[in-house]
């Protein structure tokens, strides 16, 4: 059984597995009771391994990586929530029950089948022994001569290899947990006095914005790029007319296809956070996040706008946010757009109305997570007149007339088309908000959190995402002139590519922060 969809072909199932030959030999040598116990346990283990192979297929398809048996079980709950938001509660419940029953039935039936085969071997011991010897000879011969069918070796030891890979991955995860906990304690700016943090941004309103699934493929994939690049060009010109200018580059994300919080935390912590254990470790640490820097200075009010958050969010403390507006605190009365609780345009208008547009004694530092470009990219909102947004009811007709998730979820071409439209919508919402409400002191930093799933971005896609810094004050962009980023909102293909974890320190250094490592 292969563990990627690309290898799910008939030729993979005409191979001769060494594990079957060895298993037959072992079962033939055992008395009745030990034989039945061994067969049942081996069959159940083989069924469980098949379940792991299916999980590997899903994780490779959606997240561009293999399933981690130590860390990833809790992500299945997130997957169930995603299905519920995208396809409806009843469908999600039925699919969840079906998946659980399928796993149980698969493990049980393979165990029963293995017991049945063990009994057959015992009843025909002489012939079975000859057959096992012949199969072993064929396996060794095929291995020695490299015999293949359609490019696939006949002799296989795939099952043992998969077990070995999972075992090594589990051990590496446990070792990484201890090492990363030590690494997280080290912080280049951990002991920097507040007065020496970002002095060159004093008095500025800083907005850090993540655009969901905004990856390099949106700009460079020939099936997606035309619409997105046109949006970026149009937005660059519109912003320039309003007095804003931008520089753009690339960051390599710590995640792919999903798990957006890993991209957010990697960018803002300056640590490479590519799994859930690392995320938990950082969230419980005193490691200084980029957003918390502004709170530490005492010179900024700090706020988060999180339309995708629908439950308690203890990460607020780590990110140093005085106030967080979740999906239920932005006054939205319109429909959900699949997983996204509200259109980006509305979330930004609510941010303006409830936070940014109000008079304050201090400048504002904001972290905003935009969600309209979240898969399954159907239905997608459309821009409406900003003065007509109201409580969001205006989107009811747009949502009703939109494409249904089921219409595109298994269609790669349509998924690409709708994905591109969703990114264009998110970028347009953000840049129009800046044109409309930005001031001489507004500094916008926006980037993607990760590439879209491989069905859209491609199986060999990079993990790069675009990042842009936009400001009216020329001094702000002058500070990053030596970064060699591209002018405008569209980074050139040869623009610098940095690891996402390097951004925090580069940003703090560029704007005058003094390194003072924590002890």
TrEMBL record:
InterPro entries: Alkaline_phosphatase_core_sf
Keywords of this entry: Membrane, Transferase, Transmembrane, Transmembrane helix
Signal peptide coordinates: none
Keyword Transmembrane helix appears in the UniProt entry: yes
Transmembrane segments: 12-30, 37-55, 92-121, 133-156
Domain of life where this protein originates: Bacteria
GO-annotated molecular function: transferase activity
Protein name as catalogued: CDP-alcohol phosphatidyltransferase
Organism whose genome encodes this protein: Streptomyces chartreusis
């Amino acid at each position: 059984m292969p563990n990627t969809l690309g290898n799910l072909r008939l030729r993979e199932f005409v191979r001769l597995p060494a594990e079957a030959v060895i298993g037959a030999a072992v079962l033939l040598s055992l008395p009745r009771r030990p034989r039945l116990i061994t067969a049942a346990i081996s069959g159940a283990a083989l069924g469980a391994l098949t379940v792991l192979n299916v999980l590997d297929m899903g994780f490779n398809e959606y997240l561009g990586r293999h399933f981690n048996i130590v860390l990833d079980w809790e992500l299945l709950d997130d997957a169930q929530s995603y299905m519920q938001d995208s396809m409806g509660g009843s469908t999600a419940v039925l699919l969840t029950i079906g998946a659980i029953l399928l796993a149980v039935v698969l493990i049980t039936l393979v165990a029963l089948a293995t017991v049945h085969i063990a009994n057959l071997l015992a009843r025909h011991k002489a012939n079975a022994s000859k057959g096992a010897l012949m199969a072993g000879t064929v396996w060794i011969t095929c291995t020695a001569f490299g015999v293949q069918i359609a490019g696939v070796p006949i002799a296989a030891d795939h099952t043992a290899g998969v077990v070995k890979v999972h075992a090594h991955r589990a051990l590496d995860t446990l070792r990484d947990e201890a090492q990363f906990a030590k690494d997280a304690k080290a912080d280049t700016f951990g002991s920097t006095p507040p007065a020496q943090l970002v002095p060159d941004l004093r008095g500025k309103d800083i907005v850090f914005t993540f655009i969901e699934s905004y990856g390099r493929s949106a700009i460079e994939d020939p099936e997606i790029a035309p619409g997105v690049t046109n949006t970026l060009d149009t937005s660059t010109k519109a912003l320039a007319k309003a007095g804003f200018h931008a520089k753009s580059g690339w960051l390599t994300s710590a995640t792919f296809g999903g798990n957006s919080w890993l991209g957010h935390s990697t960018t803002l912590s300056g640590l490479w956070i590519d799994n859930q254990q690392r995320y938990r470790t950082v969230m419980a640490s005193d490691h200084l996040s980029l957003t918390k820097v502004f709170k530490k200075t005492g010179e900024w009010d700090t706020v988060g706008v999180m339309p995708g958050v629908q439950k308690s969010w203890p990460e607020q403390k780590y990110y140093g946010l005085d106030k967080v507006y979740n999906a239920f605190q932005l006054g939205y009365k319109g429909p959900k757009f699949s997983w996204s609780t509200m259109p980006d345009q509305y979330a930004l208008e609510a941010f303006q109305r409830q936070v940014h547009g109000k008079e304050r004694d201090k400048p504002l530092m904001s972290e905003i997570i935009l969600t309209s470009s979240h898969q399954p990219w159907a239905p997608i909102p459309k821009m409406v007149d900003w003065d007509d947004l109201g409580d969001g009811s205006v989107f009811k007709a747009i949502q009703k007339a939109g494409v249904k998730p089921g219409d595109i979820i298994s269609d790669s071409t349509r998924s690409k088309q709708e994905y591109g439209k969703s990114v264009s919508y998110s970028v347009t919402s953000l840049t129009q908000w800046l044109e409309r409400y930005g001031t001489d002191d507004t500094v916008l930093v926006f980037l993607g959190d990760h590439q879209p799933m491989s069905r859209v971005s491609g199986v060999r896609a990079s993990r790069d995402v675009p990042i842009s810094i936009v400001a009216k004050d020329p001094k702000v962009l002058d500070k990053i002139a030596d970064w060699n980023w591209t002018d405008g909102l569209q980074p050139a293909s040869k623009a610098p590519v940095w690891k996402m974890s390097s951004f925090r320190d580069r940003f703090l250094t560029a704007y005058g922060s003094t390194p003072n490592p924590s002890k």
